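queue> pop job 88
queue> type: inverse folding (structure -> sequence)
queue> payload:
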């Protein structure tokens, strides 16, 4: 599933095409993805001007001058294609601009979603209502994490995947951030000191920013809107590297927890 860096990369790729543009036409080529497209999508979006693009957790946001925000989720295999030469069978949503540009939302597995919501009430969108702070924003702090995790006996790995604690973190980047912070993923979250959580916050930001700079990770079907593949996967320190050498000289191990594989180095992640 595309994670936060992939969504951020997607939003940045769409911005030069859509920001400031007037939507000349919008077309749905099927009735639904994971759920139906908004029935008034064409009426509310045609003729609107895109005033900003953004992201909340793993959702992309397209704001218009009509006070509406198109909220998209890429699901398991979704990606936007810019100025496609020809339409593909799984290009399910088309947006044409007054400048003659086109973007197509391609989603072969149809686990993505598209919603319309009032821009001034985004905090009330059901998927956003219980989200924690953005990991790249000022709301994520060691002090805040220390308070949120106090008394929690679940592992720090599972707690970081809880969207109520931190919004938008996924399995790949949690593994990488814990490794960079030298924290054992099995450690009970409530046992971590404020100093270690300060270090963890710094590691989360560093890993995410590096992934965004690299254009995200190429996993299964993910690609940036311009069609280029992301290359952060070539920089993974532990993820997907079971049995390989860690930079510290240890051997990367793997275990399953919460239905996901956790990759870590028992030698350097003892904190």
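queue> result:
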């Amino acid at each position: 599933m595309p994670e936060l860096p992939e969504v951020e990369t997607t939003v940045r790729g769409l911005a030069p095409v859509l920001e400031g543009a007037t939507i000349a036409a919008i077309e749905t080529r099927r009735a639904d993805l994971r759920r139906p497209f908004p029935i008034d999508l064409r009426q509310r979006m045609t003729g609107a001007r895109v005033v900003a693009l953004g992201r909340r957790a793993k959702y992309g946001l397209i704001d218009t001058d009509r006070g509406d925000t198109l909220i998209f989720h890429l699901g398991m295999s979704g990606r936007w294609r810019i100025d496609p030469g020809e339409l593909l069978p799984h290009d399910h949503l088309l947006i044409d601009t007054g400048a003659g540009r086109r973007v197509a939302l391609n989603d072969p597995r149809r686990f993505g979603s598209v919603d319309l919501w009032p821009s001034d009430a985004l905090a009330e969108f059901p998927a956003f209502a219980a989200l924690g702070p953005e990991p790249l924003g000022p709301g994520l702090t060691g002090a805040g994490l220390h308070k949120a995790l106090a008394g929690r006996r679940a592992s720090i790995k599972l707690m970081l995947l809880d969207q109520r604690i931190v919004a938008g973190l996924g399995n790949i980047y949690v593994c990488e951030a814990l490794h960079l912070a030298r924290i054992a993923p099995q450690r009970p979250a409530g046992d971590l000191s404020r100093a270690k959580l300060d270090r963890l916050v710094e590691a989360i930001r560093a890993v995410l920013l590096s992934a965004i700079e690299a254009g995200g990770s190429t996993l299964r079907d993910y690609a940036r809107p311009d069609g280029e593949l992301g290359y952060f996967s070539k920089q993974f320190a532990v993820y997907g590297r079971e049995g390989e050498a860690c930079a510290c000289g240890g051997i990367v191990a793997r275990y399953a927890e919460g239905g996901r594989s956790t990759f870590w180095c028992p030698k350097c992640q003892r904190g």
